[in-house]
Structures are given as structure tokens and as C-alpha cells.
Write a structure and sequence with these properties.
By secondary structure, the protein is of the alpha+beta class. The protein has one domain (about 5-90). It contains two helices and four strands; from the N terminus they run E-E-E-E-H-H. It has helices at about 55-60, 85-90, and strands spanning about 5, 10-15, 25-35, 40-45. A four-stranded antiparallel beta sheet has the order 1-2-3-4, with no helix packed on it. The chain starts with a strand and ends in an 8-residue tail after the last helix.
Length: about 100
């Protein structure tokens, strides 16, 4: 089983065995460029850079006790975009054909 987590279209997390990415307990962070036709990985690994130009791990390390999964109450710094912007990005995902 592969676990993939994605909050916004241009970022994702994929869970691997912890040995593959020991600094993030197996999480591979992915920065993506998405279009209706394709998805391209622009940065990946446990030290990949997010859309703000920061390492994902620098944000997610605060949630170590939650297996590096950030939620509002997991100790992670808030994103520079709010819930309404996140929802708008999800709805506007160019890979989704049904709206």
C-alpha cells in the first residue's frame, strides 16, 4: 500500500519505508507543476523545497510526533495561504475534469 497525501495541487507527500528517507521517517516531499495534460516533479525528497522556497522538512519537523503530518494543532507553522485560498486551489486543480 502506498500512502499519498496532498493538500494543494502543487505539493504532495508519499510514504516510503523509513530507511529510504530517514530524516522524514520515510516521507518523500514532492513539489509539482500541474497542467491539465501532465504533472511534473520539480523538487523531491526529504529535503525538497516547497512553493514558498523552504524545505518541507523545516515545516513538517514540528509534527514529528504525528509522523511529520502537519495539521493546525500539530505545531507546524501556518502556511502563507489561508483555508479559503487552499479550497480555491483544490477546486481549480487543472487535472480534474469534473467540477
Amino acid at each position: 500500500m502506498v500512502l499519498v497525501m496532498q493538500l494543494v495541487p502543487f505539493e504532495a507527500m508519499v510514504k516510503h519505508p523509513s530507511e529510504k528517507y530517514p530524516d522524514s521517517n520515510g516521507w518523500e516531499f514532492l513539489a509539482l507543476t500541474v497542467t491539465a495534460e501532465s504533472t511534473t516533479i520539480t523538487s523531491q525528497g526529504d529535503h525538497a523545497l516547497n512553493f514558498e522556497g523552504r524545505e518541507y522538512l523545516s515545516c513538517h519537523a514540528a509534527a514529528i510526533e504525528y509522523d511529520f503530518v502537519c495539521e493546525k494543532n500539530h505545531g507546524c507553522a501556518p502556511l502563507s495561504i489561508g483555508d479559503e485560498q487552499i479550497a480555491a486551489l483544490q477546486v481549480a486543480d487543472p487535472r480534474c475534469t469534473q467540477r
